[in-house]
Design a protein that fits this description.
The chain is α/β, with parallel strands linked by helices. The chain has 20 helices and 16 strands.
Length: 465
């Protein structure tokens, strides 16, 4: 049987020494005495479970411990002195950052049982994360038909070295596509330089794009390398290119024709080998017809055109994207917050997302900070009605029951309803799993009965010890 590694943060080392004697075929304990060293050890060789011994001086721990316990999918157990629970600063720290806690003196057998349950839950979470990673391609997330079409285009585009024009709504992910073109092409070793043409004042954009020589204008105290030159041997991403003035359009066209630039105030022609990827959230072909954009520049840029679909056209990807945002921002959430309610996931899938992926990212991050419960609700995201938010309210006990039920169901499905294998994976006995399944309304074979809402209030805390 493979060892289960446990990181033990113990300043004094007494508990770590006791646990060392319990090592065998199941557990292997790694001891660190310093919090920074523990954070580094977890970053370099992550353990699914950890034990933090909290005694003596608590100074700095309420803010320091989340750096250690916040990384998913790990689960942590606190071992504390009884008087620690009387410290008003430490109580929320323990509640929000730990799967469970034990008081000194420790009961070794009980601690190992808790450790086994925490390991099982972390292992299932790790499997969920691994499956979510399968949804990724080119650093993007999605299995929808629209994303599959985008992936097929990128498969071809990254192999050739020609200009690309990206179209799509604001926030849809055009820069992410441009970065993928850079990262998966032969130019990945060169720089990626991004410039938002709409964000630079008209008086400065010539200098930002082409650079300038010392003394070229008032305030030009030294030579400046422009973004085109800075992107040599890499990729230049020009966002909102439709906002370029006619003069800048002419200069950019000249560069694309001969791949040479002249800095502002200079006379020397400088060759630059770069690949240009341009993007616009307006219809450039319509801008050409209206005379607002040069037709010859449009044709130079539009060698390959890729449309980045808005989020409302790939609703089946919303859950995976939201979960990815959640996983990437675990450091900003409370330990109590474990994920999204089903109501929140459905609300996100049915929302039109006028701000696209950028809007989803911002709403999820804000909900992670502000949510008081165990699951993010539609109201936390700002996309649910008061009626629906009230309908989805549950007690904290009910939220914990729901999480336990989801973990057990997923484990049973992973093991094709084999209770013995599932129990080993969860770190509990077969009999305990049967009792847990009965309490959670899960039939043998991982087919759920009616949701056990009525049992939520009688949730047996001892089953997790």
């Amino acid at each position: 049987m493979q060892h289960r590694d446990v990181l033990v943060y113990d300043v004094e080392g007494d508990i770590a020494a006791l646990l060392k004697h319990r090592e065998g075929n199941t557990w292997r304990f790694r001891h660190v005495r310093d919090l920074d060293a523990a954070v580094q050890a977890q970053a370099e060789a992550p353990c699914l479970v950890g034990i933090a011994v909290i005694n003596g001086n608590h100074e700095g721990l309420p803010t320091g411990l989340p750096r250690l316990t916040g990384a998913a999918p790990s689960e942590w157990i606190a071992v504390v002195e009884p008087r620690t629970l009387d410290d008003y600063r430490m109580r929320p720290c323990i509640v929000h950052n730990f799967h469970d806690f034990h008081t000194l003196p420790t009961d070794d057998e009980r601690l190992l049982l808790t450790l086994g349950h925490a390991y099982g839950k972390a292992a299932v979470r790790a499997q969920l994360h691994a499956r979510q990673e399968q949804d990724r391609r080119f650093g993007m997330i999605g299995r929808s038909a629209a994303m599959q079409a985008l992936y097929r285009q990128l498969d071809k585009v990254v192999k050739v070295d020609v200009p690309v024009l990206l179209s799509g709504e604001s926030g849809a992910g055009k820069e992410l596509v441009a970065r993928a073109i850079h990262a998966y092409s032969a130019r990945s070793g060169g720089p990626f330089v991004a410039m938002n043409c709409a964000a630079v004042p008209a008086s400065l954009i010539q200098s930002e794009l082409f650079g300038h020589e010392k003394g070229a204008f008032t305030g030009a105290q030294q030579r400046k390398i422009g973004n085109i030159e800075a992107s040599a041997r890499g990729v230049l991403f020009l966002d909102e290119i439709g906002d370029l003035s006619p003069d800048l359009q002419t200069n950019l066209l000249r560069f694309l024709q001969d791949m040479n630039i002249v800095r502002v105030g200079g006379t020397q022609s400088i060759p630059v080998d770069t690949r240009v990827v341009a993007a616009s959230n307006v219809d450039l072909s319509a801008a050409v017809a209206d005379g607002r954009f040069r037709a010859d520049l449009f044709y130079r840029l539009n060698v390959v055109h890729i449309h980045v679909p808005p989020l409302r056209e790939r609703r089946e990807d919303v859950r995976a994207i939201a979960q990815s945002v959640f996983n990437a921002n675990v450091s900003i959430k409370s330990r109590r917050l474990t994920g999204f309610s089903e109501a929140a996931l459905c609300a996100m899938e049915n929302y039109d997302w006028p701000g696209n992926v950028r809007d989803l990212i911002n709403r999820v991050r804000r909900a992670m900070i502000m949510c008081d419960g165990a699951h993010i609700q539609p109201a936390d995201l700002g996309i649910g009605s008061p009626a629906s938010a009230g309908h989805d309210f549950m007690t904290l006990e009910g939220a914990r029951t729901q999480l336990d039920r989801e973990v057990v169901l997923d484990c049973l499905r992973q093991n094709h309803a084999n209770v013995s294998r599932s129990a080993r994976q969860l770190g509990i006995s077969r009999g305990t799993l049967y009792r847990l399944m009965a309490r959670l309304g899960i039939q043998n074979g991982s087919r759920p009965n009616a949701h056990p809402a009525s049992t939520s209030a009688n949730h047996d805390q001892g089953a997790h010890k």
